[in-house]
Amino acid sequence: MKKPAFLTIIIAVLFCSCVRSTNTELTDKQKEAVKNEVKDQSDELQSAISQLSEKYLIVLDMQKFPVTNNSPDTLTFSQINPINYLIENSNPDKVIYVKSASLALSVSLRGITVDTVSIPDFDKRLKLVNNNVFIKTKGNAFMSKELIGFLKKHEVRKIIVVGLVAEECVYKTILGGKKLGFEMYTVPEAIIGKTSDGKQRIIKTLAEKGIKLLTINEIEKTP
Fold first, then answer.
1. 67 has a pLDDT exceeding 50
2. Least crowded by CB within 10 Å, which of 1, 87, 189, 213?
3. CB 215 within 8 A of CB 185
4. Which of 80, 50, 157, 102 is nearest to 72 (CA)?
5. Is CATH 3.40.50.300 correct for 55-219?
6. 121: which DSSP letter?
7. Residues 160 and 55 sit within 8 Å (Cβ to Cβ)
8. What is the chain's alpha carbon radius of gyration, rounded to the nearest angstrom?
9. How remote is the C-alpha of 157 from its chain's centroid?
10. 126 pLDDT more than 50
11. pLDDT in tens, 151-201
């Protein structure tokens, strides 16, 4: 009578041991799966950020303009934050700020001259990481000789353009850079249009013309 009871105890011990072993094995597999998932996400993040580090970032016209029929409404944090995020994740030395200046013709006995009327300050919420600031007087920022000189000096080939305004300066600058032989990029979330529909049309047109679109959603993935 004692023998069966003894066997029962042994079987019970072996069963519990197997259950513990199986539970431990499942836990280890789960931990390994989580570890691999975190690694994959980390690799994706580093890959996306490396895309920024190898390119120059041009930030256009992020200034305190008076609101008119030709400009977007007052900028919100949701519009500025994507631009600041790109600035923060770029190489500080490779960030370029471009300001727009308005001009006026002056007529005098000496002839006709062109004078700079005003250069609005940057929006106070814009993150500034260096003094690489250039002034443009036309929609296409690449019309600035000073900017072209800077780009040639640093042997720049790949450029991301973000900022204001999608339908005008952003569009003209991106195509202007492409015409000069630069590899041009933009980030739809980091350009601001007069209207949402107008911006979407510009993004579609740029893509059709061979401009490469990066997405900030990939860059914002975190482990």
1. no
2. 1
3. no
4. 80
5. no
6. P
7. yes
8. 28
9. 17
10. yes
11. 999 999 999 999 999 999 999 999 999 999 999 999 999 999 999 999 999
